[in-house]
Design goal:
By secondary structure, the chain is of the alpha+beta class. The chain is built from 4 helices and 4 strands, in the order βααββαβα. The protein has a single domain, classed as Alpha-Beta Plaits, CATH 3.30.70. A 4-stranded antiparallel sheet has the order 2-3-1-4. A hairpin with a 6-residue loop joins strand 2 and strand 3.
């Protein structure tokens, strides 16, 4: 399955209720899994981003739908990176 790094920053709404971050994250993991995804890890971060999640989804469309649902809740804004292992990237790196 494709892998993604989801980098998140709290919105004003999200930071006002920061104590609920763990509960919201647990609920979002359930939603992602119900869509066929798998969460490999979730982390609070120090620096440019507040939260980092690594996950797998069956397709980019499933990942996009989840990210739109996550953003619509209003607690975080996301930046997402699609990840490729070096084995996966070998076929397109040869074309460079």
């Amino acid at each position: 399955m494709p892998k993604y790094a989801i980098l998140m920053n709290y919105t004003d709404q999200g930071v006002r209720d920061v104590k609920a971050t763990a509960a919201r994250t647990a609920e979002n993991v359930k939603v992602f899994e119900s869509m066929g995804g798998k969460v490999l890890g979730t982390y609070l971060a120090m620096g440019q981003y507040d939260i980092l999640a690594i996950g797998e989804a069956p397709s980019d469309e499933v990942a996009a739908a989840f990210l739109l649902k996550l953003g619509a809740a209003g607690n975080v804004k996301t930046s997402t990176l699609k990840l490729f292992s070096f084995d996966e990237a070998a076929s397109f790196l040869e074309k460079v």
